[in-house]
Amino acid sequence: MKELGITVKKQENFSEWYTQVVQKAELADIRLGIQGFIVHKPWGFFIIKKIYEYLEEEIEKQGHSAFLFPVAVKEENLKKEKQHAGFTPNVFWITEAGDKKIEEKFALRPTGEAQIYPMYSLWFRSHKDLPFKGYQSRISVFRNEMTTRPFLRGREFLFFETHNVFNSHNEAEEQIKDDLETCRKIIYDKIKIPFLYFKRPQWDKFKGADHTFTPDTLMPDGKRNQLASTHDLGQNFSKAFNIKIRGKDEKEQFVWQTCFGPGIWRIMAALIGIHGDDKGLVIPFEMAPLQIVIIPITFSDKKSESKKIIDSCVKIENSLKKLCYRVKFDNSEETPGFKYHKWELQGVPIRIEIGPKEIKSKKVSVALRTENKKTQITISKIDKEIKKLSLKLDKDIKDKADNYFKNNTRNSNSLDELKELVKKYRGFIKVPFCSVDNDGKSCADILKIETDGADICGTLYPKEEKTNPNQKCIICNKKANHIVYVAKSY
Ligand SMILES: [Zn+2]
What we know:
This protein has 490 residues and is an alpha+beta fold. The protein folds into three domains: 262 residues, 2-Layer Sandwich (BirA Bifunctional Protein, domain 2); 103 residues, Anticodon-binding domain (Rossmann fold), CATH 3.40.50; 79 residues, C-terminal domain of ProRS (Translation Initiation Factor IF3), CATH 3.30.110.30. The protein is built from 13 helices and 24 strands. The strands form five sheets. Strands 3, 7, 8, 9, 10, 11, 12, 15, 21, 22, 23 and 24 form a twelve-stranded mixed β-sheet that branches. Helix 2 runs antiparallel to helix 5 and helix 2 crosses helix 7. The chain is globular. The structure holds zinc ion. The site of zinc ion has 6 residues, from loops.
């Protein structure tokens, strides 16, 4: 028998644990042989499809419509917005077809702005055409990353992006609040991943944006994982791409824009890392590819008893299917013990066991993925009991994640203390800081060197924490105008 289970503890070696779960729980296959390009296997892709479905449903409720752009981007468009042109060093270029050079090389999209906004300049003429809210989903983008990791960083990774156009900056700001609400409803309520919403410092915003906002969580190794980003693009792109409309006053004006990009992969990585345990994957009930597995306990020398057990398993499988659960009767040749481990590793929320004891008592044994015990439930009440167990599972997952998150935010008022906290715990550390505009960058650079790589995540949004008048920047000792969060990042 090949080594089925996870061979390291999550607490002791998170990096190796993560690699093993990705492979052994059948989420991705990295053996394709081109660095940074992975295969999404059915088990993992089911969970990813759920993330997409949640987002699409929520975004459409807000009035967004789906469109689909091709993967090719014109070179001149990538360079039109001056700061956005900062993407070009990481862009893949298509320069040849067969053995011939292409006359006008083009890029594989690193993100959508440079292909969508030239079209926007043709689509809108009047203030009456706005607001316009468009999005594209279930697509890939490409960036030439040097170090890659499944669901954390890839040369090709899964993407979702909204691109919104407004008559005023006020409307753009309202959209940013809606994006925050979308993150709360999907990433926290549905997927049970806690996060803080930051306004990023000016030196670390999206290339071309006025401001960038991100929900960030903490992985079990205490590193920050940015789960999404929302950008207030101001009029930067509308000026660069000439997106103009005739306003109510009949004067021509540039539009206001926002875009929002939940990191599909990053959310998946957080689900794997934060919810998983030493046995493998743990998945919220609604997202599980299989929600219930039924395992028969039979003995080869007791044929007639075995038949009764199998019949009972089939009956229960059918009745649960009728209730619309995703259920599997695992009647394979493997031993019950092997099956327990396999389905635990893959994160199936509920396991039902039926053997001679259960047949006699007209009950079934049930084990919940988040608990280390079995309970007996009466077959006639199975519908109600499964519902209860599914709620218990989701509550267990949420409580565990919330606890971990809460216990990993600390305060510091000096550089020495900060250095020690970063070294000992990582996590988020709140410190007083001089400025989150570009003049604070030199302090951020020093902080990064002193802490061996920690960054300033930003200030809390929408309610920034207040400093008291005596607080000083922990680097330059000037008056602290902000409480910023510091963390090491992926
Ligand atoms: Zn400073």
